[in-house]
Design a protein that fits this description.
By secondary structure, this protein is mostly helical. Helices cover about 75% and strands about 5% of the residues.
Length: about 425
């Protein structure tokens, strides 16, 4: 393909992605508002109309914010590529007269700084205006700034050496560098999964051992019943940033931890906590975590293989607005534009994720109480102001979890079957 044809293809895919996103967002907003006047029958005895309408308003506000963010993001991408932004930082980095690896690190650093500054107003608005308006934000300006400093420091201390390793492989290991780069990144990802619970997560949050009591007793009995072992049960101080509740597994192999948000512990009954944990255990026992890791390895291998073919293509660089061919600019450019070309596989990934959620719910219904999980989900929908009525097409395209109505009906069927 010629450079002009690549530019046209890029614009076609970018416009298609932008159009589909805007269409689905507007469709979702209209559907939510249309169904905000009354609570769906399934939830009529569980959710107050005021809570249902708050969720609709919150969802609409997030959609409006997302529409603006989408426009800005598209313009920024065009600015970096066809607008010459990457060329500018490339020329600036070359002015230091360093080798390919050092120049690449400077380029990535400049890109990260500019991107952070561009996205800062969006982060501030989301945290201190949107989330604050609906009573979810607990983040103070001090916490926000400290988090940003910590995140930047980690990016330098961890991201810098990883990027250096990849650029070194790209420059030194010949035609099949992409195989070695992929293997290197896979090893790093597994290592980070291992180290995250004990070294990285505590930098941002405080983790304390779960207190003795009914909740811990139920959790320990569930772990024994399902044959799950972990390095401990921890409660995370999520309430310092948000009132949203959650629970998750972290770590890998023998370094697994079970983490509950303190907001979740305060909201749910012991039986409901047990049911939520049973769902999360379902993901582990059904090997969803391993499947997702394997899938990410496969996609990254495909990505590196494609980049291995494009890295010497003048048309690839010129067609996306970059004048000079280099290993570091090829890596940066590819990481920026690949999402434009792979956008249409989003609903496939969403479908796979929703299938996993149904399987985890079935596991939870088998090893805990399905009614307790339904009750917990309703509380979480309410407390997180999650809409009960998303547009079906939007949900199929984007949502990693089944819509509330479908999920609860599925759990009701499992409950009735158990009886």
């Amino acid at each position: 393909m010629t450079s002009k044809e690549v530019s046209i293809l890029f614009l076609v895919f970018l416009i298609m992605k932008f159009t589909i996103k805007i269409y689905l967002d507007l469709r979702n907003k209209e559907y939510i508002n249309k169904h905000s006047k009354e609570v769906p029958n399934t939830f009529r005895d569980k959710v107050e109309l005021a809570d249902h309408q708050k969720a609709a308003l919150y969802s609409s506000s997030k959609i409006n914010f997302g529409l603006v963010s989408g426009v800005i993001g598209t313009l920024v991408l065009l600015g970096w590529t066809l607008g010459g932004g990457l060329n500018y930082i490339d020329e600036y980095a070359k002015g230091f007269n360093q080798g390919n690896i050092a120049t690449g690190l400077i380029c990535f650093g400049l890109f990260a700084i500019v991107s952070m500054l561009i996205s800062l107003p969006e982060s501030l608005y989301s945290t201190f205006v949107l989330e604050e308006k609906f009573g979810f934000n607990k983040t103070t300006p001090k916490t926000f700034i400290v988090d940003m400093i910590k995140g930047t420091a980690l990016g330098i201390l961890i991201g810098g050496p990883i990027l250096t390793g990849i650029l070194w492989i790209m420059e030194k290991l010949g035609t099949f560098w992409w195989v070695y780069a992929w293997a290197f990144l896979c090893i790093i990802q597994v290592l980070m999964l291992w180290l995250y619970p004990t070294l990285i997560a505590p930098i941002f949050n405080k983790f304390t051992e779960m207190e003795e009591g009914e909740v811990k007793e139920k959790v320990l009995k569930l772990l024994e019943k399902t044959g799950f072992t972990s390095k401990g049960l921890f409660v995370m101080d999520a309430s310092i940033r948000s009132s949203h509740g959650n629970a998750y597994f972290t770590g890998f192999g023998q370094n697994k931890r079970i983490v509950f948000f303190d907001t979740l512990i305060k909201t749910l009954t012991p039986g409901e906590v047990e049911a939520v944990l049973a769902h999360e255990l379902g993901h582990f026992k059904m090997k969803h975590v391993l499947k997702n890791i394997a899938k990410s390895f496969i996609f990254s291998l495909i990505g590196f293989a494609i980049l291995g073919q494009l890295i010497q293509s003048q048309s690839f660089f010129n067609g996306h607005g970059v004048q000079n061919v280099s290993i570091y600019m090829g890596l940066l450019l590819f990481s920026m534009v690949s999402d434009v070309y792979t956008f249409l596989i989003t609903p496939i990934n969403s479908l796979s994720s929703r299938k996993h959620e149904f399987e985890a719910d079935a596991f939870a219904a088998k090893y805990s109480n399905a009614s307790e999980l339904i009750s917990a989900l309703v509380k979480l929908y309410k407390d997180n102001a999650s809409t009960l009525t998303p547009d079906p097409l939007y949900s199929k395209f984007y949502h990693s979890h089944p819509p509330a109505l479908i999920r609860v009906e599925h759990l009701d069927e499992l409950k009735d079957h158990a009886l």
